[in-house]
Amino acid sequence: xxxxxxxxxxxxxxxxxxxxxxxxxxxxxxxxxxxxxxxxxxxxxxxxxxxxxxxxxxxxxxxxxxxxxxxxxxxxxxxxxxxxxxxxxxxxxxxxxxxxxxxxxxxxxxxxxxxxxxxxxxxxxxxxxxxxxxxxxxxxxxxxxxxxxxxxxxxxxxxxxxxxxxxxxxxxxxxxxxxxxxxxxxxxxxxxxxxxxxxxxxxxxxxxxxxxxxxxxxxxxxxxxxxxxxxxxxxxxxxxxxxxxxxxxxxxxxxxxxxxx
Length: 261
What we know:
CATH 2.40.50.140; elongated; transmembrane helix
């Protein structure tokens, strides 16, 4: 066969192969897009509550709906007891006659039956130990615990007298406010107690503030106490005349020192 005829046959074969490839591609595309089964529109999954809502028939505006009887109630009330609780006392404006603190009923209260001033329990304990249970306002030995039956009008406040070196001896056994100039600060023989002296006399004779070692820290510390020399002090406390150590006010807390100048 001549070479030209062979070349023409090859070209024809290539053209046919091209048509077959194109036909195969078209067939594949048609098969992929053929609707093999009918598809229904999807329906959202509804909960039972939603289904009942969507299928319920709207209620007419004038439909009668029975109401709950006015006398019924689902709340159960307990029976009212016959007992009663005493109302809290009105202690506003009243203070512990010993410390000057505002009264707090939770700390326990005592009251003088003679002059009607109040004390906290811890104040009465100190008065019992240091002042023979006598009231620091009127000197009566008539302090008693306050019961729930006490009326708010039963109490009165106590304002301590302001005393000086000139008149302090007439106020023994009372809580006073004293003001005076410190002339000397002495240390006890054991070195742990202090006497802030207002008179140049012996420890047992002169009027003084006494700081025992157990209360030094609460009272400001040694440097604070030693620094009182030459200063004018105002202090609130129980003025006693000790049978051995003479006139004094025992200091156990920094708050008892009202001013230092």
